[in-house]
Amino acid sequence: MKQKKVARLRRARQTRAKISQLRAVRLAVHRSNSHIYAQVIDASGSKVIASASSLDKELRESVANGGNVKAASLVGKRIAEKAREKGIESVAFDRAGYRYHGRVKALADAAREAGLKF
């Protein structure tokens, strides 16, 4: 089990190194068994510009379970709205070493549909 997490973090480190080299604003995703979280982080990597998760009050009212594709797509839509309010149009997608599949894919697709470019 530990090897699986170490491998994921290694993949994440490679992605983050490339994104920081590009000096791009990034959309970072974290997923647990019961929830999904997204943050828009500035190019320096030191400041969170916008965040959304399945724990947010308005999302919890509409979704019973935060660990499914429906919740992930709502989080993606919400993070895109918040980022656009702050004037951010394009980001680099940081999937944190997770496979681009299931909840991570649903979040990314919903963010793209809501107007975020990556």
Question: What does this entry show, briefly?
Answer:
This protein is an alpha+beta fold and 118 residues long. The protein has helices at 2-22, 57-62, 69-85, 103-113, and strands spanning 26-31, 36-41, 48-53, 92-94.
What CATH calls the topology is Nucleotidyltransferase, domain 5
- Gross morphology is globular
Q: What is the element string, with H for helices and E for strands?
A: HEEEHHEH
CATH class: Alpha Beta
Terminal residue distance: 32 Å
Q: Helicity level, as a percent range?
A: 40-55%
In total, the number of domains comes to: 1
Task: Provide the low-confidence segments as ranges.
Answer: none
Count of individual helical segments: 4
Record field, number of beta strands: 4
Biggest sheet character: 4 strands, mixed
In round numbers, the mean pLDDT is 96
Class based on secondary structure composition and strand pairing: alpha+beta
Strand content: 15-25%
Please state the CA-atom Rg, rounded to the nearest Å.
Answer: 14 Å
Description:
The protein contains 4 helices and 4 strands. The chain is an alpha+beta fold and 118 residues long. The protein has a single domain (2-113), classed as Nucleotidyltransferase, domain 5 (2-Layer Sandwich), CATH 3.30.420. The protein has a 4-stranded mixed beta sheet with strand order 3-2-1-4. Strand 2 and strand 3 (48-53) form a beta hairpin. Helix 3 (69-85) runs parallel beside helix 4 (103-113). The longest helix is centred in the N-terminal third of the chain and has 21 residues, at 2-22. The chain is globular and about 40 Å long. The mean pLDDT is 96.
